[in-house]
Amino acid sequence: MLTRTTTVGTGNPADVAAPSGTGRRATHRLSAPGTDDSVAVAIRDLNAYYGSFHAVGDVAFDVPKNEITALIGPSGCGKSTVLRCINRMNDLVPGARIEGTIQYRGQNLNARKVDAVEVRRRIGMVFQKPNPFPKSIYENVVWGAKINGIKGNYDELVERCLRQAALWDEVKDKLKESGLALSGGQQQRLCIARAIATNPDVILMDEPASALDPISTLKIEELMRELERQYTIVIVTHNMQQAARVSDQTVFFSLGEKRMGVLVEASPTRELFTNPRDQRTEDYITGRFG
User: Spans of biased composition, class Polar residues (predicted)?
Assistant: First the structure.
């Protein structure tokens, strides 16, 4: 259990109003939180603050199960902030404050009694820059399982996770060597293997290929498509072509008043890139701003 208490939203699907002062309405439809089995995470009325700065305002969207959701938008619009809210990583930022609800398995992850460590076990994270530990490839994979008290055959766990991360054939004969000796693309796939070793439901990826060469980027994209069969994936990317290639749903953020991040549109990816509902979305994807 994540918590002893449960907070389940109610209400009918409705259009979501944009934050006050924007003069616009977000153009997407939402389910009632906790009522749709096809939704992995339901975000409602999410506001994020860093000290007195209102970084993200009134964000609401659903993350469908076993699909890839891409968060796009100009720099500073709150994409990574929203991503970090989903698994409580912003708890570690001094002065950060989060309001609103993030429903996962019928529970509000922002509730005070929710164990943030357990949230991060269920909702894993892969960062922009590969960050393997200064340990062997083998120990990198089993580290999360060990600290979370997961028992079993670690040899089988390592092979399974490295196969899922499309890395096994490249490293099976050097598992005792340092993960830091791998190439950048291999290191990022090792980090993905480490993330899935704790058996999460959701994997968050913050620009996972931005520091990689085109060939390594393609491997990461192919891997994401394989992983979505078993996991729900949310990625942040500045690469609109990447979002169009790999994601099923795209969520576009922009900047509102006082540089507050606002959600403009959440739509199936093909629809958003070919027939956006909001002029701001069209302006961004066609390069008129951003």
Answer: 1-10
